[in-house]
Design brief:
Layout lengths: L1 H20 L7 H22 L3 H11 L6 H14 L3 H14 L4 H13 L3 H14 L4 H13 L3 H14 L6 H11 L9
Helix pairs in contact: 2-3, 3-4, 4-5, 5-6, 6-7, 7-8, 8-9, 9-10
Length: about 200
């Protein structure tokens, strides 16, 4: 009896201190912590984006990209921040990587064409827009962007041809009047035929 009591007294401190010093491993806990950190980084990046601090937002989107479950969302927002920060080369690289992951995404293709134009590769961008107009003839937004580009780079004659296509296919388009005004200013012989 005394022997048992001595053993019990000797082991008693280990019961209290042994449990406190060992950490109980919970399966999946580490992944949940990393996912929560990634989501927090995404939220911080969104806040910086709202403040128009694009460089800081891009930094946090890049951190959020470490988590597979939000990778695509964070990557798209990262690429967009680079474009908004006018970091044309890096944003073009990012959008080209995105288009490899989603090759049929029209929004990404339009972004690439726009960024290409903004980076000074006007002829390359015009070719891209021309191909997009050909492959999406019923999308007025594509044609609208193409006309805007042509007008902005001083190719009013080409813009005039596209304008008449826009007016015929999409007579209620909100930019028709604006395009008419610009074409009247840029072309001496521009006139809108009466109906």
């Amino acid at each position: 009896m005394k022997k048992t009591l001595r053993i019990l007294i000797a082991c008693l401190p280990f019961c209290f201190f042994g449990c406190a010093s060992s950490k109980l491993y919970i399966p999946g806990e580490k992944e949940i912590v990393y996912k929560n950190l990634a989501i927090e980084n995404l939220e911080i990046a969104d806040a910086y984006l709202d403040l128009k601090n694009y460089a800081k937002a891009a930094e946090f989107y890049k951190k959020a990209m470490r988590n597979k479950s939000i990778y695509m969302t964070a990557f798209y927002k990262y690429a967009r921040c680079l474009a908004l920060a006018r970091d044309w080369d890096n944003s073009l690289d990012a959008y080209n990587r995105l288009i490899e992951l989603d090759p049929e995404n029209l929004s990404l293709k339009l972004s690439i064409a726009y960024i290409t134009a903004m980076s000074g590769k006007i002829d390359e961008s015009i070719i891209m827009y021309k191909e997009l107009v050909g492959s999406h003839p019923d999308d007025e937004g594509v044609l609208e962007n193409y006309i805007s580009l042509l007008l902005n780079v001083g190719r009013a004659e080409d813009a005039e041809k596209q304008y008449f296509i826009l007016k015929e296919k999409f007579p209620d388009n909100s930019k028709i009047k604006s395009f008419e005004q610009t074409l009247k200013t840029d072309l001496d012989n521009f006139s809108v035929p009466e109906k």
